[in-house]
Amino acid sequence: MRIVILVFSFLFALFGMPPAKAQAQGGRNWTNTVAMLPTGGVGVGNPMARVQLVEWASYTCSHCAAFARDAKPELTALVRSGRVRVEYRTLPRDALDLTAVVLARCGGPNRFVAAHDAIFSQQKAMLDKAEAFAATPAAQQPAPTIGKRLEQLADATGLRVLLRGHGLDDAQMTRCLNDEAGQKRAIAIAQAAQAAGVEGTPSFEVNGKKVVAHDWATLKPFLTAS
User: Fold this and answer.
1) Which residue among 71, 118, 145, 207 sits deepest, i.e. has the most Cβ atoms within 10 Å of its Cβ?
2) CA–CA separation, 26 vs 18, rounded Å?
3) Where do the domains of the chain lie?
4) pLDDT-derived band of residue 226, with 50, 70 and 90 as boundaries?
5) Angstrom distance (rounded) from CA 66 to CA 69
6) In this model, does residue 8 exceed pLDDT 50?
7) Of the CATH numbers 3.40.50.300, 3.90.1150.10, 3.30.70.260, 3.40.30.10, which one belongs to the domain with range 32-224?
8) Please, which residues bridge with residue 2 across strands?
């Protein structure tokens, strides 16, 4: 799926071992180690892991949602064990994507993974609601600011309701959606991906090298090879 340059108007181009057992064996649960990184990505796992995985993904990309679903059990186990660290670089391709990226990051590192997973799990419903919103008079009218358009999308697509269930309150989400610096940080990830030659999502880099893989079955050997 090709990356689309973000246009500032409304466009809709349209778990492994249980933690208790791991602790019983004396292992640290590295899934709880999450940090916002200078690249703009979010790192999850052991910073010194043998395998450093970068994933470029879009919240409106169906292949990305499929990867998130298929990879979750085994990838979580690899991260928990400390063998793999994942850096998520979420690329906004349009206004809806930007809304999702901003809200996923809104709760900071400790809430990112749950928000990220929740958005992908509800992707189809989000896209259906966004398509319905695109046909309304409100969507046809220019928004006074980018933030106001993002607020409209958060409400119309159910993203605001979804993320209330993951620890974000309305005032916090409204601040994030209207934070120009936060919008620019999210967009900069997409710009950096284009500059690096990332042509679609999902795309992956393992230990600093791009790999030809776009699904879990193809990516897994790169992470588990001794």
Assistant:
1) 71
2) 13
3) 32-224
4) low
5) 5
6) no
7) 3.40.30.10
8) 200
